[in-house]
Amino acid sequence: MRSILCAAHAGGQGKTTLAQLVYLGLQRSGANYKLASADFVDESGHSKIGKMYPQRVTEFGVGAELSIAKKANDMNASLKYWDRLGRSFLDGGVVVDLGANVVTQVIEWARTRKVSQIFQSRKAPPVDVMLVCRAEKHAIDDISDLVRNFNDQDVMPISRMYIVLNEAGGSFSTLKISQELNKIAENRSLHYIKLPRCTSELWHLMELNFVSLEEALNLTEDEAAEKFDIDIWEATSGVADLRIWFDRVYATMKEEGVFEGT
Prior knowledge:
The chain has a single domain (about 5-200, about 250-255), classed as Rossmann fold, CATH 3.40.50. About 35% of the residues are buried. The chain is built from 13 helices and 7 strands. The protein has a 7-stranded parallel sheet with strand order 3-2-4-1-5-6-7, with helices on both faces. β2, α2 and β3 form a beta-alpha-beta unit. The chain has helices at about 15-30, 50, 65-70, 75-80, 85-90, 105-110, 115-120, 135-150, 175-185, 205-210, 215, 220-230, 230-255; strands at about 5, 35-40, 55-60, 95-100, 125-135, 160-165, 190-195.
């Protein structure tokens, strides 16, 4: 079973939402995947997605602290820290929510650790990467850097690369993102997926309360009204809109082959 990395080069692009969509889509397709997060962990010991899926997320954090490296007298501690993530790739079957603040570390780890060579010698499962951005100029510049780095097979042998265009902040119609990214990818075929804005009235309440997409989709109208302290009218339309949105996104991802070979 392949691994799937969900990444962005900046916060607020929709990375954690994407990781959930991929994870739930794989479940719907009959694949049994694990969840992992390499992202900021707060005082509770959980990342954002870890709060949404308690007891189900392997937390990798954001890397070794310099003080720990000094105490251990091991300046390679920052590299060794990510070896555990590497073992997850060798096992396969994991969706990783890769934080914007650790992408550079993981790429440097992969380059230094000769990950491509190890994957080839161990016949490791394929790794797909899904890069998400909003329709903002700086976000597009950032995702260009990610495509350039992940396209380097000496860094990590990425099998398929998806560009997820998150329309939550607006349309990409005036931005020529595909032409720019296709040049950077050179001979690699990039797969583009539009992620439409979720208009469900539950969405902002889910974000505020760290309610997972999985939990919200399984709520009845009465349960949603009680959980979010809203009236039945808002709850009924909110649940319906959320399910319609998820079905639409799932169908798009399935058509683009996200769940194939898993």
